[in-house]
Amino acid sequence: MITLTGKKVSEGVAIGRLSFYRRDTKEIKKFDVKDVEKEIMRFQKGREKALLELKDLYTASIKDVGEANAAIFEMQQMILEDQDFIDAITGVILEQKLNAEFAVQSASEHFIETCVQEGKNYVQGHDTDIRDVSSRLVRILSRSWKDRLLTDEPIVLAANELYPSEAVQLDKTKILGFVTRYGAINSHTAVLARTMGIPSVIGLGEALKKDYDGKTIVVDGFEGKIYIEPDYTTLTRMKQKKENNVSQVKNLERLKGKDNVTQSGQRIDICANIGKREDIENVLRSDAGGIGLFRSEFLYMENRHKLPTEEQQFQTYKLAAEAMGAKPVVIRTADLGGDKPAECLDFGEENNPAMGYRGIRISLDKDEMFKTQLRAILRASVFGNVSVMFPMITSLEEVQSAKLVLETAKRELKEEKTAFDEEIQVGVMIETPAAVMISGELAREVDFFSIGTNDLSQYTMAADRQNDRISRYYDPHHPALLKMIRIVTNNVHLEGKRISICGDLAADLSLTEFFIQIGIDELSVTPPQVLGLRKKIRDIQ
Ligand code: PEP
Ligand code: MG
Question: Where does Mg(2+) bind (predicted)?
Answer without folding.
Answer: 431, 455
